[in-house]
Amino acid sequence: MNLLGTWLTDRMDLQLHLYQLKILIRIVKKKYRDFRLQGVLDSTLNSKMYETVRNRLTLEEATASVREGGMQGVSMKDSDEEDNNH
């Protein structure tokens, strides 16, 4: 998560491409779910860096939804629906 946070911080003034955004959302959500299933404590998972990455991806998602007219089922919102469809 630290690597991803650093990468996003280095590109703070650049908007993510829609493809980058979709992949990053999937990576972050899958990583979070997998570690949670393995018993990692919420206090560890919900680190400052995770919150920073999550906030950035949520903002990028909102911008892309307006610009592109939707994200076709990929979202930072908490839902297992997309995992069952892919």
Automatic annotation (TrEMBL):
Domain (MUN): residue spans on this chain: 1-35
Signal peptide positions on this chain: none
Cellular component terms (Gene Ontology): glutamatergic synapse; presynapse
Gene Ontology BP annotations: dense core granule exocytosis; positive regulation of exocytosis; synaptic vesicle exocytosis
Top-level lineage group: Eukaryota
InterPro entries given in the database record: CAPS, MUN_dom
Protein name, per record: MUN domain-containing protein
